[in-house]
Amino acid sequence: MANFAYLLGDAAAGECLLVDPAWDIRGLLQIVEDRGLRLRGAIATHAHADHVGGRLFGIGIEGLSRLLELAPEARVWVHDADAEELVKLTGVDPNRLERVHHRDTLSMGETQLEFLHTPGHTPGAMCVKAGDALLTGDTLFVGECGRIDLPRSEPLKMWESLNRTLALLPDETVVYPGHLYGPAPTSTIGQEKRSNPNLNVSFDEWRSVLGA
Ligand SMILES: [Fe+2]
Predict the structure, then answer these.
(1) Model pLDDT for residues 40-69, shown as the tens digit of each residue
(2) For residues 75 and 80, what is the distance between their CA atoms, to the nearest angstrom?
(3) CATH classification of 6-210, choosing from 3.30.450.40, 3.90.190.20, 3.60.15.10, 3.40.630.30?
(4) Measured in angstroms, how far is the CA atom of residue 48 from the centroid of ligand 1?
(5) How many angstroms does the Cα of residue 19 sit away from the middle of ligand 1?
(6) Any idea where the domains of the chain sit in the sequence?
(7) For the whole model, what pTM was predicted?
(8) Ligand 1 centre and the CA of 109: distance in Å?
(9) Mean pLDDT, consecutive 10-residue segments, the chain of 212 residues?
(10) What separation in angstroms does the CA of 115 have from each of 47, 190, 208?
């Protein structure tokens, strides 16, 4: 499935956060340790097992429950609308969640992260903006968008997230998606607006192409 996990850190503050740590938790914690950083916790772009852990196709993925066990101070930032599903999937203690909403921010030293609620793939899907970087989870991939045929997905919300929220960001914003599904691991909002068929499209046009 080629999931991406990301490490967002502030070197001066000596702090970091992991984004979507589902696989190889020990390996990810080793990377944090090798950089001499203190782990504040994790951000979940949305509550799906391949991003947060849980059971998927009968396979157990260690994910956040393992991370919170190995890092007892760590907390998990998740959008309010996916928090309950995340607890159901991973079994993590709800008291260790930081429930966030659209445009909430989180600071690590001088670095400020902003959460953008981008529902559609799931009700609480969100993107994380860090300077010029945008971590898009399963909302926007290079050349594609996330699935909207899943039990909790909502096509109209996905169209709005792509065309009303993400398309308004500056063209030079660098996109870091949740999976390697396109021809390259990253892109920019400008590039996606030019070449991704899910952006710069009316809802009716989009829906007819999808057959939704
Ligand atoms: Fe997903």
Answers:
(1) 999 999 999 999 999 888 888 999 999 999
(2) 14
(3) 3.60.15.10
(4) 5
(5) 13
(6) 6-210
(7) 0.96
(8) 30
(9) 94 97 97 97 97 90 96 98 97 98 97 98 98 97 95 96 97 98 95 96 88 60
(10) 15, 20, 31
